Amino acid sequence: ALALATAAHDPxxxxxxxxxxxxxxxxxxxxxxxxxxxxxxLEFARRCHDPYQLRHxxxxxxxxxxxxxxxxxxxxxxxxxxxxxxxxxxREPMAYLHLGRGGLAHWRGNYAAAEASLREAMAxxxxxxxSALVWYLGLLxxxxxxxxxxxxxxxxxxxxxxxxxxxxxxxxxxRGT
Length: 177
Fold this sequence. Notes:
Blueprint: H1 2-7, H2 11-28, H3 31-48, H4 57-67, H5 71-85, H6 92-107, H7 111-128, H8 130-133, H9 137-145, H10 156-165
Helix pairs in contact: 2-3, 3-4, 4-5, 4-6, 5-6, 6-7, 7-9, 9-10
C-alpha cells in the first residue's frame, strides 16, 4: 500500500500507511524499522501540509527512543509533539501525548508523574468514548500496580476500573456524602 501511495504521489495516504506500519514494527520490537518508517511518515506529513498528519509522529518517535533508553531525546520529541497537538482541534492527539508523557515517566520510575499524565489522558479518551479509552487503560493499570512511591497498595485493580468509569456521580467519599 505504501508503494502504491508513493507511486500515486499521495502523501496523505502514504502517511497513513506509514502509521499502520509503525504499529506493526513497534509491536514486533523492530525499533530500527519503526523509526525509519516514522521518519518517512514525517516527510509525507510535511509534504501534504496538513498539521493533523503530524498528530502522532513525534509521540511515536519518543516511544521508540525511550524503549531503547534514549530518555533525553524522548523528552525533546514529546515537547515537539506538544507544540503540534496544541494547535489541533481534535483532543485525541493531546490525549495520546499525555499517554506518551505518562509512559515515559513510568519507564523512568516517576510513578506519581506517570499517574497524573495517564489520568489526564484517560479523562480525554473517556470524553471521546469508551471505544477509545479501552485501548489505553492498560498502561494506567500497570503504573498503579508497580511497586513504588505514591498511592500504590491493595485494591489498585479496582482503582484502574474507577479511572475508566470517571468521576463518581453519587457517593463522594471526599465530601462524606
